[in-house]
Amino acid sequence: MKPPHVVVSIFQFLVLALPAAAQVAGSIQQSESLRRRREAERLTRDQQVEEPVPSISPDEAVDIGPQYILSSRQQRRWLEVGFDLQYSYTDNMFFNEPSGPTVGSTLLTTSAQIALTPPEWNVAQGKLKARAGYQYIWMNYALTGARIDPTTGFRKSDNDFDAPTASADLTETWKHWQAQVGVDWVRLLSHQPTYSAYSEFYRDYALRWSVSRAFELGRKHSLVAGYLGSHHMTHVDPTPGMDDGDRNDRTDHTLLLGYTYQIAPRLALQPGYRFQLVQYNHANRMDQLHTFTGGASFALTRWLFVRAYGAYELRESDDALVPDYRKWDVGVSLSAMFRF
What we know:
Blueprint: H1 4-46, E1 50-52, H2 60-64, E2 68-70, E3 79-90, E4 105-116, E5 121-123, E6 126-141, E7 161-174, E8 177-190, E9 199-216, E10 221-235, E11 250-264, E12 267-269, E13 272-280, E14 286-299, E15 304-317, E16 326-339
Antiparallel strand pairs: 1-2, 3-4, 3-16, 4-6, 5-6, 6-7, 7-8, 8-9, 9-10, 10-11, 11-12, 11-13, 12-14, 13-14, 14-15, 15-16
């Protein structure tokens, strides 16, 4: 039988360590959820853009207005600078089992990015373009609404974190096809024990690859289907007494469908679906993720966009210790993109 002071020490460790572990896991999942959504949006955006259709008769534009189709976006600028402000609500910020205690929260996601985008080259029968960029993301919980986590008594804002990301990729486009290979370097920085601490709790080096095709279904309808793969080499603080700092190493395989309906020259509806299979390298664990999305995008100008979206995401894991979560997210975003 263990001495009482040892039992007390173990109890104190569990009380402090388990909420911290949940915070880290939730932050990693939140970062991954954001990455998946933006990856899908980027794939759809890069292969969809409105362009005027030549008039059948000189009076057509006067009678019914300009008509639009969807086609590949052409980028001929050397530099991109972008800003994004996204305000959302999630009903499960810690990605817990639906039968367990789930905590909802508002979330403000702010990002700024800069990228070098040299002119594309003619390669084989298509166009090859390169991109290298840096993005900084701020994630802030519960700026409005309930600020205390009812399950622990801690502030939800204790889970705030930043995500600086450096990336580079090569993209080949031909006709309606697109193939890409790239690399990402991501760090997650906590604001604990003080907001200015910027303590790294997760690091990810990823190699990614993708192939996709756009189908023009009509003058205002299109469908993008794609496969995206990635291999992640990660680091977190190891579990005490164990050498498992790379326990989040994994390989992802994602199938994506994105539909776009151009309601008006500046307004588009974009429902979509993603299926992701995740194989963890150092554990007997396989996850399946299903994500259903819907959104409406409106171009205020050529460089300023507003978007409303909703997403339902669920995970099924064959590891009994991993939550099979369900979560809803709804939000609005305002984005600006400048090309020079």
